[in-house]
Design goal:
globular; alpha/beta; Rossmann fold; 9% strand; 53% helix; single chain; 8-stranded parallel beta sheet; nSTAND_NTPase5_dom; Novel STAND NTPase 5 domain-containing protein; 20 strands; 45 helices; 939 residues
Length: 939
Amino acid sequence: MTPEIHDLSTLKLKLKRTTGKPASFLVGAPFSWDEGRGVPPVGGFIELIRKRVAAEGSSYSEDLEKRLEGAGAAGQYQAAMSFVYTVFDADVVSEIVQDAVLSARKPGSPVLDPTADFDGDPNDWDLSRGQRGLAHLVKLDPNRFPGPVFTTNFDPMIGLALQQQGIRYRPYTIPLEGSLNAPISVARDEVNIFHLHGYWRNSPTLHSPEQLEAKRQQLQASLEKHLNQTNLVVMAYSGWDDIFTSALANCLSTDTFSGTVTWCFYGNSPAEIREQNAALFEKFKGGIQQGRITFFHGVNCHTFLDELIADLGFDTPTRSAIESSPLAGWEVITTERLDNLTPLTGDEAVRFFDGAIPTLRHAISPLIPRLSQTARLVERIDQGLANTAACTMQVVRAAGGEGKSTALLQAAVTAATERDCIVLHRPSTDAGLNPDVVASFDPAHRWVLVADDAEGLISDLWECAVRMHDAGRHNVTFLLAARDADWIAEKGDQKGWNGRLTRLDDLVLGGINEGDAELVVDAWSEQGDAGLRGLMSEKSRDERIKKLVAATRAQDVKAGDGSFFGGLLDTRFSAAALLDHVVTLMEPLRDRDIDGGTGTLYDALLYVANCHAVGMPGLEKRVLASICDLPVNRVSTVITGQLGRELGAAESRGHILTRHRRVAEAVTVASETRFGSNLEDIWDALVEHIARLGREEKDIGECFNWIIHAGSRLKRSLPSGLDDDRRGAIAVEAAYAAVKHQPEWLGVVVDLARALRLSGRPAEACKEMSDRLKTARGKQDLLRIIRGYFYEWSTCAGNLRTRQGSLAGAWLAAFSLSDSLPPEVTLERAKLSCAGLGVAFENLLSGVPDSAFAKGRRAATHLGWQTNPDPRAAGYFERHQSELDEAGTPVPADNDEALVWLSEAAQSAHAELDDALLRNLQKNGRLTFKRLRECLDKP
């Protein structure tokens, strides 16, 4: 293959694209050697080996030199290392590697013990310009350049350069089977570094051809996982003839892999590069043919990255805010930065009133009212700044949509412009909090750290509190906000904060007082009819204020939606007006592609809104990333951030959701009734991708079970703005998707039957249960589900409203409790089946009070009362009991007699059944119920 090799300017254009794939990196030995300093390249390693061998005697040196002469220039490094392995041992190889790495430390730096779990202070190492440039690039633009970094180098200097920029690094080596067990990092202040040939301390290192070319069975799958959807930038790397390069080439030839490679050569002559790298081009032939790998010449790794940074186009205040922040992913709020922000327009203010997420531009705008909670927050900041005994923490807690984010930003702006302190703001949930950096803050300054959605920082906050307390520091105030439910779920109140810092009383927001309502109504009025929206019908200012206050107080906040924003919606929009409003916001999203992913923002919104609308806590970011073909660490920027500006999309505990469930419901309804979208496709994709993620990552949280089992719930939980038939059809399609994509589970078949039954299709449900029974034996959840399987089947049969259906329902419900099935009977199962049996036998009554079916109904009721029934089940039992008493049906003397009656009634149903499959479940029709008896007899 003779691919085209492009120039440096084209490379810059490629990497500057905001819509391109995020970059990961692969670097080799020259990356650690710059201007005669650092870890020596191959020639330097060989000299170290010569010195070490010479110490053993001249005969050893002579033998080494013979081997070097026979190896030729290209193979001398491996020949030298093979000699040391053969004549000496692996410990000597490790010593040589450690000597080489430690030679990169500055003269006079403290002695570093290679056996310690510590890489030392970054300032004690001769970091190269390339290493510093890479770290600077990641800090400035973590969305485009998030990593990970792959390297054949043994040294820690890439990680140390990142640490110098406030970015945590996690070094990993690759075990013999080739699995990269590190989780895919999604934090903006954390980068995984994979040392392909080993690490300088506490790790074996690879050098010989036998080691480098040994098969690693899991390596390709691991690479696909970590490099999928990224652009791997290769520089200072000669293309080792090792298993890693082969696995990378194989990835590019795989249909399921959607990553790309940008390969940079140092040389300036494309002709020479082609001549010298023919074997490399042949190895990557598949990737070249598919356009997945491109090549560039003239790339000096030590100068290029700084040149790229200069060309990225950051305005001076923004770049200064990021660069001057010691915390990666955070920004310094300064007067200069705020003065350079574009003033908010009236239209943008109205969008904010309608639910858009606040930004610093909103926080400084006179168009946005400052409510009383902002003043209270500023007072709390002042308390923190005045505290000379300990650091201070202030938490603002509320349901979503109570105005905590706006108040937080407005208070932060006041602190930055009117107080003597340095304010660091976390603009995205992707940014973490590095306790090492916080502990190193200049004690001569007061620092205020401002973070929304702070529940994700609790562990790091605690570590910061411990470190600062132990150091006797008191110059940091943590100003935090979180949804109340999220803070509790992440155990934020279970830390002993007051033993480590001063935790001020939490500021809990909810609703609105009349004074704040006046400010809000006046701000709306300044924007005319568009600002007032639904309040235009109220002619006086006082009436408008009263209506807003009343609307917030009338909200039901049990679902976690804020009363303040709920009141705003009720005041500003009727149901029809809200639908019209979201349509205007959704329309332009249909033409906005997702940067670096697949689909549009409209598509992403539908996935999020459908989940939020049915009562889920939003959509897990990993699921949306999979659907939209994005790395997880890009979702917040390219989806949540974009939707937040228009529709108020937000994040909570790793989930994306709309600002209020009513908005999600309106989006869901509008997508079908106004835009003609097919929600069956939405749920099919949700099920497909979460099923795949469940197999790959195992822990997807509560979102997994909700989506997999959505088919059984959607008929009742989708918005009522969709008609009954549509909700049923969507539910059935979601259930079929689960059967297709989660075939190892029996529970999804039960969901399918339930979805069909609730959609008025009981005959189809019964057929599915009958047809799929033969495959039940191999299902993973067989023992847990099998009794419920027969119970749902019985309910579907009863819904046929025929004599045979009622007989089947009674027989199957009894079978679900019988000893013919191996699992234990639980009280919950007994309760449901007894309630169902009462209904089934009711439909078979002939008017004879002591018939087998009447006594079976009495037995089911007698036993059901012993299951601690909930109010719904108790209602069934009360009705059955009352009707049986009125008919004069006898009462069993005890449980033994009740179980005999139940068995006789089941056998009577079996005797009349026409369905051979159901009759063959127990050919003689005689069921026993020892397990049910054991369940009821338990204390």
